Amino acid sequence: MLYWNSRSIPELNELNFRDRMSVLRKATDQLPTPKKLVLNLLKLLVLIPLFLAIARSGSFVEAIAWCGLLLLIYPLVTRPVTFALTKPLLRQARYQFEQQKSRE
Is 53 part of any domain? Predict the structure, then answer.
């Protein structure tokens, strides 16, 4: 199942935004190198063509339109993939986050 929002992920549903992002960051940091590589390559595949389109745009209005498209497409593509790749690690990352939070 693809998740578009971190609130809809069952492992994170009781946390506030800041805590959800902390757990996601921990889970992303724990990703094995091949999965991190796939995620970063996907991000580049989204960014490079749109940045080239911005650089080659003939007018300021066209460049702004490409920037708007970039702002829409980038999170729509990368967030669900990030959530899918980190889903198996979220339970452990949340446990570590709660342990660290209880020590503070």
Answer: yes
Average the pLDDT over 75-103 and give the result.
89
In a domain, 1, yes or no: no
Residue 27: inside a domain: yes
10-55 pLDDT tens trace: 888 888 899 889 999 999 999 999 999 999 999 999 999 999 999 9
Number of domains in the chain: 1
18 occurs within a structural domain: yes
Q: How much of the chain exceeds pLDDT 70, in percent?
A: 100
Q: Count CB atoms within 10 A of the CB of residue 3.
A: 16
Q: How many CB atoms lie within 10 A of CB 66?
A: 19
> 83, 10 in Cβ contact below 8 A?
no
Listed in sequence order, the DSSP H helices in 5-89 are: 17-29, 33-56, 60-86
Domain that holds residue 43: 6-103
CA distance 87 to 85: 6
